[in-house]
Structures are given as C-alpha cells and as structure tokens.
Amino acid sequence: MFHYRKVIAAATLTTALVATPFTAYAADAGTILLGSAISLTGKYATAGHHAKTGYDFAIAKINAAGGVKIGDKSYKFEVKYYDDESTPARGGQLAERLINQDGVQYMLGPYSSGLTKAIAPVTEKYQIPMVEAEGASRSLFNKGYKYLFAVLSTSEQYLASAVALAARVAKENGKAPGDVKVALAFENDPFSLDVRAGVMDDIKKHGLTVVIDDKLPRNLTDMTPTMTKIKAKKPDLLVVSGHSKGAGTATRQIAEMKLSIPMVAMTHCESADLVGKYGATADGYLCATQWAETLTYKDPMFGTAAEFNAEIKKTVPAYATKSVPYQLAQASAAVYVFKDAFERAGSLDKEKLRDALAATDLATFYGQVKFSEAGNNIAKPMVLRQIQDGKYNVVAPVDYASHELQWPRK
After folding, report:
1. What residues have CB less than 8 Å from 154, skipping those under 6 apart?
2. Tens of pLDDT along 55-108?
3. Distance between first and last Cα of the chain
4. SS3 376
5. Distance CA 282, CA 410 (A)
6. What's the Rg (C-alpha) of the chain?
7. Same domain assignment for residues 116 and 169
C-alpha cells in the first residue's frame, strides 16, 4: 500500500547537493535528480505550494511503485527545490544555480507563465529538458524552444467556452447574442492577457457586446473602479482573470457591493479557495479548470481522475475537506510524463530524453498528453466547473458535463 507521508521526505531535497556530474550521480546512486524553482513565498505562494504538492505526491508514488525502469536498472526520482519568491528574475537565477551548481539536467517547471518565461531561456541555453505544468501562456510556444514541454492547455482556451455558454443561454431565452453585455477584468500580466485574447476571439465569433474592458494592475487587491462600472452597466457576463488574489478580490467585492451579475466566469477559483473562504457568496461562479475528478481519464499508475482525487484527499491532510486544485493534478501529470519518457528513451541521456518527450502520446488521469512541435499539449480540452451548493461541477463543454448549468446565478 502506498504511504505518502512515509516516502515524501525521501523524494524532496531541501539542502544543497554536492555538485557532481549528474550522469555519474544517477548511475552510482540509482537516482534521477529533477530540479525546480517554485513559488513558496510571494504572490504565487498558494498555487506554488499546490504545484509542489503535486510534484512530491507523484514522485513518492512512482518511487514506491519501483521507480523509473531504464534497461535492467531502476531509478528513484528526487527533486531539488528553491523558492523563486514569485519573482521572474529570481527564478532565472535559480535555474542557473540548479544546472551549474547542483548538476540538474532535467527540470520541472515553476508556477505561472511569467516565471516559466524567465526560466525557459535558461533551460534552452543549456539544452535541459523541462516538463512544465503551470505556465499556460501561448507566447511561450512561439519562441522555437526545443526543450520545453507543457502538459496543460494553453491560456487562450481558459475562459473562451464561457462566451459560447453565454451565447447559448441567450438563444435559449429568446435573445440574440448581440444583446449579451460582457464585462472584462484582466490583470495586466502575460497569462491573463492571453486568456483575454481567447475570450475576445470568441466574443467576435459569437457576436457578444463588450461594455467594460479593464486591464488591471498586478497584485489585485482592489477592483472598486471596475465594480462601480459593473453596477452602472449591468453586464450579463463578467469574465475575470487575475490569478488567486484576483479571484478572491472579485468575489469579495461583488458581495460587498451587492452586485447582481447573471453569469460570472473566472480563473483560479480552486487555488483561491473561493468555497472555503466565501461560502455561498461564490455559488454560481463558473471556474475554468484544466482538470476535474469527474472526467473519465485514467492511467495504470494513478488510476482514474476520481481515484487520484480520492487518494490526495486521503493522504494529504491539507486537501481532506476541500477541492483538489487542478494545479496539483497537472504537476503530478508532469512527473508521470517524465517517467514515461525516460523509460521509452531507455537512457539518462538528455538528448534521447528530449526526443522521447517530443514523441509523447500518453493517457493519464489528467487527460491525454501529446505535444505539438512547439511543445504545448494539443490533446486535452479545458472545461468549466460551476460552484453549485459549495461543490465544483462540470457544466461545459456539454460533452464533458456532469451537471446542468444553473442560470442565472443565485
């Protein structure tokens, strides 16, 4: 039986290792060393801890099941972390340190598109394969990188389906899509602006009307000007992207100002713990998600999406009574992709590993993973979950829905 608590410490290194050539280290010790600069403090700390938990859980489970089999040898994963303090410049420095001082030749990604953008040029320079799970900006995948691979769907897909949903609801209620008034509130950062680009494409496609289009400063702690406009304009759909802090701020201020908005869609609901912190106030919100435990994905290591979800809740106390965020699930999927690629490569050689990663076509509990030539996952869709009586239920796209949409929100 897998015991997360007993083996997790063995999977995580928190002190510096002797700087020796990695291939020799792995061959002598039967260990594959992964490195990650991850946000444990600063703006992205909440989501960074979710990602680290996902990495640690997958590493512990893989190691407990016998590790990574390369030829007639087995290797255990270990990971060396540094706190990037949610700062891109720091992330780039730490990537250099992991590679040049700690001998890391395989990297797990940081949290956020901004941090990934800072680290990707470093791993590319040293030809270090990096599998990342938390940087969704589509601008990461137009640079010609050959060593960057992302398991998650790209950012322009995050909330685009909310626009199609609003258009569908309008038609069902005898209104034209052009009658649907949309308010947009997006943090001025690479990820959120890419989310906005996808939303704008779908607004044009379906013919909705934009009445508010606010680009907001980073580190969203106050959205009063936007909320005041919403009170005056009375939009039918509000779309928000501002990471965990923005999701929390929007939810709090909508309640404080007693705004009635029939449909609200946002990113980062789970990592902001909207249900835990705001209770019924968040009911009816639509939440973009990369993954949900009700989806019919599965693999031999983690089982079904539901089984992965149940095991996290059972073995990681922090998630026993709240929703398992997709950031955690996709981080575990990234480690599983590394295991699969190492075993198909049959080697610790990083070029053979890179080629194996590029050829990935893997079914996982998180969804299918298949990389385009640019390194983004082209095999897995985004879905929308609606908070219904404190639970996150998939409502769109229809083919993936487990529940009916509640509209207008209570």
Report:
1. 136, 137, 138, 141, 194, 376
2. 999 999 999 999 999 999 999 999 999 999 999 999 999 999 999 999 999 999
3. 44
4. coil
5. 9
6. 21
7. no
265-312: per-residue pLDDT in tens?
999 998 899 999 999 999 999 999 999 999 999 999 999 999 999 999
Q: Model confidence at 350, in pLDDT bands (50, 70, 90)?
A: very high
Looking at 266, 285, 309, the residue that finishes a domain is 266
CATH of residue 120's domain is 3.40.50.2300
Name the DSSP letter for residue 323.
Answer: P
- 180 and 308 both lie in a single domain: no
Q: Are residues 127 and 83 in the same domain?
A: yes
| Dihedral over Cα of 13, 15, 17, 19: its sign | positive
Tell me, yes or no, whether 65 lies in a domain. yes
Q: Token pair for residue 14?
A: 């928190």
User: Do the beta carbons of residue 365 and residue 89 sit within 8 Å?
Assistant: no
Residue 213 belongs to what domain range? 159-266
Output the pLDDT for position 8.
55
Distance CA 347, CA 148 (A): 19
Phi-psi sector, 89: left (phi>0), alpha (psi -120 to 50), beta: alpha
What are the tokens at 77? 């994963």
Q: If we measure between CA atoms, which residue out of 294, 264, 115, 116 comes closest to residue 185?
A: 264
CA–CA gap between residue 379 and residue 388 (Å, rounded): 28
Q: How far is Cα of residue 387 from the mean position of the Cα atoms in its chain?
A: 19
Residue that has been written with the tokens 């394969």 in this structure:
129
12 lies in the same domain as 146: yes
Q: How many CB atoms lie within 10 A of CB 7?
A: 17
The sign of the torsion formed by the CA atoms of 273, 278, 281, 283 equals positive
Partner residues linked to 37 by β-bridges: 82
Q: Which residues contact residue 173 at a Cβ distance below 8 angstroms, ignoring those fewer than 6 apart?
A: none
**Phi and psi angles of residue 215, each rounded to the nearest 5 degrees, phi first:** -105, 120
Per DSSP (E only), the strands in 177-282 are 181-187, 209-216, 237-241, 263-266
CB neighbour burial string for 293-328, b if at least 16 within 10 angstroms, e if fewer? bbbebbbebbebbbebbebbbebbeebeeebbbbbb
Q: What is the 3-state secondary structure (H, E, C) of 231-250?
A: HHHCCCEEEEECHHHHHHHH
Say whether 342 sits in a helix, a strand or coil: helix
Cα 179 to the center of its chain, rounded Å: 33
Q: Number of folded domains in the chain?
A: 2
127: number of Cβ within 10 Å: 12
